Amino acid sequence: VDVRIQDEGDLAIVSAEISVPGANNATLSLVGPSRMDYGKAMEMLKLVCEMIGDYFGGNPPNEGEGGNKA
């Protein structure tokens, strides 16, 4: 999962690109407090991306393709 973390003061955005047939670029983002557990947020985001990919028949995101890893 290519995960990006943006710090917006008291809020943080954790986002990942997903593969969905018919969509050029699809991104799923999670917005939460900057003090959130980033490891848990990334794992949940990965799970949801895989579920969406499976549901729409796309390929789930590949691990190890850049991004910030915690």
Explain what the structure shows.
- It is a single chain.
- The chain is 26% helix and 31% strand.
- The protein has a 3-stranded antiparallel beta sheet, with helices on one face.
- The protein is built from 1 helix and 3 strands.
- It has one helix at 38-55, and strands at 3-8, 11-18, 26-33.
- The longest helix has 18 residues, at 38-55.
Q: Sum up the overall morphology in one term.
A: elongated
User: How large is the share of residues in beta strands?
Assistant: 25-35%
Strand order of the largest sheet: 1-2-3
Radius of gyration equals 12 Å
Q: Which sheet architecture does the biggest sheet show?
A: 3 strands, antiparallel
**Average pLDDT over all residues:** 76
DSSP summary, beta strand count: 3
Distance between the termini: 12 Å
Task: Extract low-pLDDT stretches.
Answer: 63-70
* Helix fraction by DSSP (H/I, runs of at least 4): 25-40%
Element string (H = helix, E = strand): EEEH
Structural class: alpha+beta
Q: So how many helices?
A: 1
Features:
single chain; 70 residues; alpha+beta; three-stranded antiparallel beta sheet; disordered C terminus
List the helices and strands and how they pair.
Elements: E1 3-8, E2 11-18, E3 26-33, H1 38-55
Task: Give me a quick take on this structure.
With 70 residues, the chain is α+β, with helices and mostly antiparallel strands. The protein is 26% helix and 31% strand. It has a 3-stranded antiparallel beta sheet with strand order 1-2-3, covered by helices on one side.
